[in-house]
Structure formats: structure tokens, C-alpha cells
Amino acid sequence: MNQESDQILLPNSLEDATEQAIAAIHQAIADGATRIIVDLRFPELKSMPIAYQIAASFNHYYGKEWQAIFADAGAAALAKREWADLDVSVRGVNEGRRAIREEDKAFLVIEPTSIEVEQVEKLVKLAGDRPFVMFNPRLENSEVGLGLAARQMRDRFLSTFETAYYIKPLELGALWRCYPQTWQIWQQTEIEMQKLAEVAQRPSSEDIERLFRQKTGQQSGSFLGRLQQFFNALSN
User: Fold this and answer.
1) Are residues 61 and 89 in the same domain?
2) What is the pLDDT of residues 162-172, one digit of tens each?
3) Are both 140 and 182 inside the same structural domain?
4) Position 139 in a domain
5) Among residues 168, 195, 219, which one ends one of the domains?
6) Same domain membership, residue 229 and residue 162
7) Is 46 within a domain?
8) In CA terms, which of 3, 15, 89, 219 is 20 to 30 Å from 54?
9) CB-CB contact of 54 with 108 (8 Å)
10) CA–CA separation, 175 vs 178, rounded Å?
């Protein structure tokens, strides 16, 4: 099989993105990664159905020997009702050692926020070298008043994770990473999405803007209407 046919392509539906994310998680784990992030940054995305599919894949790989961990008790209670068919242990991040059992082989934390950074970091330490996956973390979205020390702790903590899957719509295209591939920047043309660049590390907003200016001459705002239609289709 040639290199071109081995390439994973930008998803054209939310279902494709979910399948890619699940495959990326387990490929990264198979390759030895133990701290993993999966982040689908679609506007108004309903995360629970995707979290359910990831949880089902954990059942396939680990049986009952893993934990689903939620940021708050309300979300955990909802999952216990909606995921009854999965027969999975569900905990909250505030449960500490009860959420990290000795027999567990992996952990999935769903949508932790910046408020839970310290608690999640403690769980990661308790998990040791067992796979610890964060799905759609919102640790970057600092609440007003979050101090410098807390921001530094958050950034240091996030730097220890491998981003196995990331996709985010941009005004000019999309930022995408699907492990084991590198980070990719895609451009929405008049006809289709085309790959604009590949970079080894996650690019900043400034990096992305500079790449678009260099390669296309376009400024932010171009193609916005077509992009909105494109990503609305992904979110349906």
C-alpha cells in the first residue's frame, strides 16, 4: 500500500470525525501514549453522544476495568442513566481515589473545565502509567479571575498530554490533527477543502493567520459563509 493511500483524510461528517477520534485514541495507546486529549471544537456540539461512543470502545478494549469520570455530579448522574446498557463505572472528578481503582486499566474524563485542573491532575498521578484520556477538555477557557499561578499550572499540565485528535473550524478552513499524522491546516476553496500545510506542533492563531496570508493572500473572514455551511453539515 503506498503512502498516499495510507493517508487519513479530513472527515466530511461528524460520524467520520468520531470514528477517526476513537481510532486515534487506541492507536496512540497502542504506541505507548498514556496521557491523551481528544478535542472536537464544533460550535454547539452535543458531546454526550460522542462520549458514549468512546465509552463503548473502552468497553470493547477493557471490559469493566476502566472508569468514566465527569466534571460534576449532575453529568455523572445523567451518564449513569443514559449509559445503562454499557454497564460502566461512572465517577466524578471530586471522588479522588475512588475514581482510580487498582483494577482499572484506563480512564476517560469527559469535558473537564479549568475549575477542575487541580483535581484532574491528582487523578492523573493516581492513574500512573495507565491510559488517561481527556475528551473535549475546556481547561484553556479560563474563568475570569484565574490567577497567573493557576494558568501556569494548567499549561504545564496540558503539555504532558498527546493530542490524538483535534478538529476546529477556522474562518478560512480547518485545523485538524489525527494521530499518527501531524497537525494539518486546511483551506476552503470555491470547490472543496484542500490541505494547505502540515506542521509538527500545534500552530497558534498567529501561525495560522500567517500561513494563510503567505500561501493564499487571503485575510480572515474569507469563505466564512461556505465554511458555516460545511461545519453545520458536520454537526448534524
Assistant:
1) yes
2) 999 999 988 77
3) no
4) yes
5) 168
6) no
7) yes
8) 3
9) yes
10) 10
pLDDT at 234 (0 to 100)? 55
CATH of the domain at 103: 3.40.50.300
**3-state helix vs strand vs coil in the chain, percent to 5:** 45, 20, 35
Same domain assignment for residues 107 and 26: yes
Cell matching residue 45: 456540539
Q: Is 197 helix (H, G, I), strand (E, B) or coil?
A: strand
| Residue in 109, 135, 114 with CA at minimum distance from that of residue 46 | 135
Q: Which residues lie closer than 8 Å to 128 by C-beta, 6 or more apart?
A: none
Polymer length of the chain: 236
What are 35-85's pLDDT values in tens digits? Answer: 999 999 887 888 999 999 999 999 999 999 999 999 988 888 889 899 989
Distance in angstroms (rounded) separating the CA atoms of residues 162 and 199: 15
What's residue 1's pLDDT?
Answer: 33
Domain that holds residue 215: 170-236
- Kindly state whether residue 3 falls inside one of the protein's structural domains: no
Q: Which alpha helices (H) appear in 63-204, and where do they start and end?
A: 73-82, 117-127, 148-158
Nearest Cα to 117, choosing from 97, 79, 143, 99? 143
Collect the ranges in the chain with pLDDT lower than 50: 1-5, 144, 220-227
> What is the number of domains present in the chain?
2
pLDDT of residue 171: 77
Q: Are residues 137 and 219 in the same domain?
A: no
